[in-house]
Amino acid sequence: MKHISTLIIAFSLSACLAEAPEGVKAIDSAATTVKMDFFHRPLPEIPLPNDIATRYDSSSPTLRRVNASMVAHTEMEIRVRQLVDELDGWGVFMPIFIPFTGPLDINSILAGHRDEDYRLDNDVIYLVNIDRDSDSFGTFMHLDMGNGNYPTVLEDMNRYWANDPRGWTNNLMFEETDEDINKNGVLDPGEDTDADGILDVSNYLPGHSPEKDDLAGRADALMSFYERETNTIIVRPMIPLDERTTYAVVVTKRLKDEAGNPVGSPYPFINHNAQTLALEPLNTVLKPVGLSTQDVAFAWTFTTQSIQSNWQSIRDGLYKHGIQAHLGEEYPAEIAGFEPLRDVNHPGFKNITNPHILPQEDWDPAFQLIAQNFLGAKDGSVFAKKLVSGHQYIDYQVIGYYDSPQLFERWDDEGKMISLSDQSWPPDLTTKPAKTRSERIWFHLIVPRKEISARGEGKPAPLLVLGHGYGANRFDVPTLGGYLARHGMAIIGIDCISHGIAISQTETQQAIEILNLFGLGPFFDAVVNKGRAFDQNNDGSKNSGGDFWTSYVFHTRDAIRQSALDYMNLIRIIRSFDGTRRWKHDLNGDGESELAGDFDGDGVIDVGGDAFIGMFGASLGGIMSSVVSALEPEISVTVPIASGGALLDIGARSFQGGVPEAVILRMMGPLYLGTQTPDDEQMRISTIVPNVNSAQELNMAAVGGVQAGDFVVVENLRNGVRGCSYVADDNGTLRWRAAADSNNRDPVRILFYEGDAMLLGSKDCETKAGVSPRKILDSFEQDVWWQGQLINRFTPLHTLAEGLGIKRVTPRMRRFLAIGQMVLDNGDPAVFGPGLGKKPVVYAGTGQKTGANALVVTTVGDMNVPANGGITQSRAAGFIDYLNPDPRYGKPANQVLIDTYTAEAVHTLKRFTDSDGNGIHMDVENFSGGTDIWGDEVPRLDPPLRLGMTKKNASGGYSASIFPYPIPTGQHGFPFPGVLIDEARKICSDACAEGEDCECDKIDATQTFDVGSYLFNMFGRFLSTNGTELPTDMCMSLDNCSFLKPAPEPREPGQ
Q: CA-CA to 375 of 20 to 30 Å: which in 339, 419, 790, 835?
């Protein structure tokens, strides 16, 4: 086991050597300095990221490895640290933490870092490229220090499970409670309300003390750039850094301590002498901002990890080039097979020759019933009409499969699923061939009618790769595809890892009955039974996407990367359809193999050739569209919807079902709770644990005699970790909650103490001398059914899941999220954003480079994938200017999005209100022109933002970032075509007097804006023109634009 002492010894030895360099510049001592405490427990307190905390490794591409301590209480955390230890550098988009030995003058920070244009002449902290081998040597990275780019405020504060003494706080990382009741600066009995042994202070700006019910005031007061408890500054770069590059963080003497004196260095010099040589360029790079080393209080360096280089090796490998060439050799670019979709024994299909394609006429009757029963398309609704009518533009569907290399293992030799911590890609992808396993991937393809596509000219149709949402599946292709097929494009989709259709037995039987009625039983089998979802909790049902977003950060990183690789492999296969090569398949039964890409056997390829390829998707599909489009040269146009960059921000704010449960609950848990209502005779004792990507509360026992003010301890008997809580009286209901770092099945016990038995100031839940527990709960006192197993009453009490036991609004929560971002950088849409055009990724093996016309779509008020993530991604890609004022507003567009609270995206703060006082958002695009159903109730930005929509990029297309307005309170995505018209009809009907004919059923898009039709037509036109047209005409809401072709006449079924 490796300890930090190894690192200290190495530094000490280097400092003692005669030839060891002195510091860059001598400095006088200061009362408050940057903190460099290698002996601090449980972890050293030093600025991070920091090359001091790396070790030399000649096998590393950067010659470095992060040097992580292996000391931890759980296997989960130890494994994370082991994998961090393999990284060849720090994150390119992770926060920078700078701890100090004492409190700072907050106003000195504000004075230097509150410029709307992020000017550099007055900053107190700098981040600068000092790598002389870099093309960007000497470049300063602009910094956010609480400027609003990375909000932490939550919309649903109560999302994180019951009985939390900090459950009312508006974020997960920073304290809002001021426990010092008597204001004496000392922790007194009765003040430690969360039993952490610390006198908590609210992390508010100086002079701010908002009331608890002042949600907006609390959000405005909260500091996300400084943590009072640890005197730590938190710095966030505005855009990602370059990979494999050394940067310097420079703290200047402009930064003052609480007494108004400049901060200083913990050493006689402005740096640790181990970094003197690396910091040699400081004087050179500081000159442009009018500084020298004389102005520096402290500086250090860090080197970033490999990012794009990994993909250059992987994708080149798919094409049989470079260190990973075995990928292309072992996994040829070919379709392995096709699924039958029609039952040849059904009377309606007795004459068909190709059961592997499903013509639209054979699908339509079944789809209408599927839409009504499974998709919420109520018969007679405008939504149903538009959904079904779009399918008239589809020629046929086909489902096939291919084999794709998987770069992490799933199962052990006995066929059991290995820990998610171990399901991750290997390091050093640029220097070592990666071991693979094969996995079958099914695709679903719809092909447009010849009458409305390039197929009518004997050419392949442009292909749109559709990414599905979290927990969804490739069936989005036939459900949503009609909206885009009408624009002449083919649409194809696959399941991301672990995804597929997961429906109940009742739904399964209903779907089978519908499809068998029309001879489509094989279609059901191909759609439902052929996918990547599987049962992850032994309940007999599939869990679609259950292990995609998790707190196992390396696995989540590689769930993204693996899915991206599978998309790239699909695109490689499509590009092999060159119009001359034949595949091994005879789909139409004529005894001959067709041209590869000729699915209907008419002698002409349907997709592939030189037809362009685009990508489109929402939510997880938006994230995958962002990542793949920035890395895959064959994609030339893309529309990511509800995507986001800086994934740590998404995890810390999202209320997307499954994300808090799979990510945050594993960090906080396993949770133990006690609850007793006024009607209860005893206190119910339960545990809350993640059940794949849902939360499950399980009752374990009932305990009597518990009183308000009692002290409860949860003790892990394996590692000795204790979590504790006071019993609180919540309007007559008694509550407590505690957690302790645990492995799965660790033995635990719960100790109940009468009154305030906690040793004042203990950070380890110690009790006062001489006190004994009134009750010890060390066994299950009732039967518990958990993940397919019965835990009998009287079984010794043990944990039901592993977890880190991290409390809300603590430094530990903040630190773990930051480490998560460092890991997730290799799967972050913002990190890859420059690959869309600003900084292409070049593939030496194929001679290709990335670049795509892009329309990044972030819906206003989205808190599933919080809207600031879409802004972050667009800013990284270069689509949102944060430095130069937009002449329309006199400030940069990025600041407009902050000032209009589009980045914050929390309507409950009531930044804007309707006439009834309800919180709503501002419409910054006004695509409706005020003609939507909300009319004057909604504030609208004038002029509308519409970034990138009026000027083409260097490639002749558009690079734009837009913020459509779905509903006043915000929404993830937007209503489908026709939905808002149905809503307008309902509003009319509800207001219509009984017996009066208000003609509500005649309301259409001429009377109210249909955002769904508008946006799908905008996206369809943008994608079908390869990103060269980006209309805003109202005809898109009306569905009558000149570029929309009439639907072809239906054909005879059963062909």
A: 339
Element holding 249 (H helix, E strand): strand 246-252
Contact 36, 4 (CB under 8 A): no
Mean pLDDT of 855-865: 98
State the CB neighbour count (10 A cutoff) for residue 601: 19
| DSSP states of 656-689 | -TTHIIIIIHHHH-SEEEEEE-TT-SSEEEEEEE
Q: Which helix H or strand E contains 702, and what residues bound it?
A: strand 694-703
Return d(Cα 476, Cα 420) in angstroms, integer: 27
Q: What is the mean pLDDT of residues 154-172?
A: 96
State residue 71's pLDDT score: 84
pLDDT 10s digits, 938-988: 999 999 999 999 999 999 999 999 999 999 999 999 999 999 999 999 999
The residue assigned the tokens 């009932």 is 702
How far apart CA 476 and CA 395 sit, in angstroms, is 17
According to DSSP, the residues that pair with 108 across neighbouring strands are none
pLDDT of residue 995: 86
Q: What ranges do the domains of the chain cover? A: 313-611, 670-802, 828-1038
How far apart CA 509 and CA 522 sit, in angstroms, is 14
Token pair listed for 899: 């000032």
- Beta pairing class for 96-99 and 232-237: antiparallel
Rounded Cα–Cα distance for residues 136 and 584 (Å): 50
Residue of 339, 341, 334 whose CA lies nearest to 400: 339
Looking at residues 367-394, what average pLDDT do you find? Answer: 94
Count CB-CB contacts under 10 A for residue 991: 9
Token pair of 806 as six digits: 């991290």
Tell me the mean pLDDT in the region 1013-1040. 98
d(Cα 228, Cα 177) in Å, to the nearest integer? 12
Closest CA to 827 of 660, 677, 650: 650
Instruction: Find out whether 334 and 449 touch, Cβ atoms under 8 Å.
Output: no
For residue 398, give the nearest of 352, 345, 342, 347 by alpha carbon: 342
What is the rounded CA–CA span in Å between residue 727 and residue 311? 52
Residue 732 pLDDT: 96
Task: Give kind and range of the element (H or E) at residue 527.
Answer: helix 521-528
Other CB atoms within 10 Å distance of the CB of residue 916: 7
Task: Give residue 965's Cα distance to chain centre.
Answer: 21
Residue among 304, 311, 149 at smallest CA distance from 242:
304
**Residue with the two structure tokens 């420079």:** 250
Q: Which two tokens stand for residue 879?
A: 């689509």
Pair 249, 127: CB distance under 8 Å: yes
DSSP notation for 167-207? TT-SSSSS------TT-SSS--TT--TT-SSS-----BPTT
Confidence tier at 20 by pLDDT (50, 70, 90): low
What is the rounded CA–CA span in Å between residue 726 and residue 179? 14
- Using CA atoms, how far residue 381 sits from 149, 607, 755, 1002, in Å, is 41, 34, 62, 12
Q: What is the identity of the amino acid at 575?
A: R
Query: What burial letters (b/e) apply to 887-897, b meaning 16+ CB within 10 Å?
Result: eeeebbbbbbb
Q: Which residues pair with 264 in a beta bridge?
A: 33
User: Residue 908 forms beta bridges with which residues?
Assistant: none
For residue 364, give both structure tokens: 């339509």
Instruction: Return the H-helix or E-strand segment holding 616.
Output: strand 613-618
Report the DSSP beta bridge partners of residue 722.
Answer: 715
Using DSSP's 3-state secondary structure scheme, residue 55 falls into: strand
Where does residue 302 rank: exposed (0-12), middle (13-18), buried (19+ CB within 10 A)?
buried
Helix-strand-coil split of the chain, %, nearest 5:
25, 20, 55
* Residue 705 in tokens: 């005699």
pLDDT, tens only, 441-470: 999 999 999 999 999 999 999 999 999 999
Phi, psi angle pair for 890, to nearest 5°? 75, 15
Distance of alpha carbon 262 from alpha carbon 248, whole angstroms: 20
Contact 676, 712 (CB under 8 A): no
